[in-house]
Amino acid sequence: MPTFVADFCSGGIVGVCYGRNADDLPTPDKAAQLVQQHNIKYIRIYDSNIQVLKAFANTGVELMIGVPNSDLLAFSQFQSNADSWLKNSILPYYPATKITYITVGLEVTESPDNASALVVPAMQNVLTALKKVGLHKRIKVSSTHSLGVLSRSFPPSAGAFSSKYAYFLKPMLEFLAENQSPFMIDLYPYYAYRDSPSNVSLDYALFQSSSEVIDPNTGLLYTNMFDAQIDALYFALMALNFRTIRVMVTETGWPSKGSPKEKAATPDNAQIYNSNLIRHVINDSGTPGKPGEELDVYIFSLFNENRKPGLESERNWGLFYPDQTSVYNLDFSGKGAVDMTNSANGTNANGTTWCIASSKASESELQSALDWACGPGNVDCSAIQPSQPCFEPDNLVSHASYAFNSYYQQNGASDVACSFGGYGVKVDKDPSYETCIYLTTKGMNKTISSNTTAMANTSSSTQTEVCTWIVGFFLMTLITFVLNLGNAIDASF
């Protein structure tokens, strides 16, 4: 199963927001199990719900928790309120539950009661409460904002904070700089495209633009809106001489469904945006203004939330449905094509299953399995050749997945036909994408019946053939291990 953030990567991290504005969600315990199942290491919640904190105890998942806007008045007025909250709602569950950030207030400039004047005093009281128990170095305090805090965001070099928020932004930025806390922003290129499609191209919003937008002041080239918005923030911070504050994206994502006028809200676009975002972050590519800068990002959201008001898209940002099945396949590793699907203990409504490559296999293991499938396995691998429909993304997991599935379908979709030495995984969600269509047994019936090498004649030998390959595969792996061990020993003398 793919990891959300590669363990060897010390750079930017990708987390997921766990909103709970719904009446059909799984219990926090089940949500925590789902998060662990998909190796998601970072979760943001919007309060300090005790059941959620308990559910994530001893999971290793790092939590960002929140102080809601409704509590800002109490937290800002009396230090004792912040002290009591920390003592009763946080300390009983820490450190078994790993809490790394506390967000004080949620996009306060967007709230109707505009409690922004209360934010910094509340932040200071929360920090003081943490200092009293010696946790101020381990748990950072900040607040989240919408891009509306900027009066200008284009071109990025002209990024500037709105003067009408200066009364609370200046003390907040001083607080963040002094305490080495990040400036937290919620960024949604989706809305920029939806509300102004004549000025923003869909490809530019989805990280897929082949053209570049040039900042006339700096000459910097931008190929996606996300980077442009991040740099606008950095330039706004620099304009106020806050050069040490780093930016953290506490919400971003793309909806999978929308109202009739929200035509860009589709599973395909959501998959494209989030996959490209993950790849962008874990590669530490940074932005044109901050090349190589590590960036932490949280995708919104874990589940679809049926009680959110507004247009249809508002209820369809989830990576998962409330029944814990995935809304679309998502590449968590940032390397290629698969997968966020569930292992097929059952099957989908059509009874169809597919076989894909496990991302836990090493490159050498996958390459050996791929070579076998395209050779002795008699799989037609032309579709994964350059310029063919399934060549992109050009990586072993994607190519092996196509080949594994083809062999699996050709051989009756039996369990043993998806073995591949333990590196094949059965799924019940179609892994097809764009013009790359994964075969199914039902779709192959006509082809098989007219094929002169009809697989029906060879299906009886499938188990023997696969088992022979497994033995050979593991023998080859063992030999490689021994040789590498010998080389390592030689090198140590």
Automatic annotation (TrEMBL):
Pfam families: Glyco_hydro_17, X8. It is a lipid-anchor; GPI-anchor. The keyword Transmembrane applies. InterPro entries: GH, Glyco_hydro_17, Glyco_hydro_17_plant, X8. GO terms for cellular component: plasma membrane; side of membrane. GO terms for biological process: carbohydrate metabolic process; defense response. It is found in: Cell membrane. GO terms for molecular function: glucan endo-1,3-beta-D-glucosidase activity. Its EC number is 3.2.1.39. Its main location: membrane. Residues 353-438 form the X8 domain. It catalyses: Hydrolysis of (1->3)-beta-D-glucosidic linkages in (1->3)-beta-D-glucans. It is an enzyme of class 3 (hydrolase). The chain crosses the membrane at residues 469-489. Belongs to the glycosyl hydrolase 17 family. This is glucan endo-1,3-beta-D-glucosidase. It comes from Corchorus olitorius.
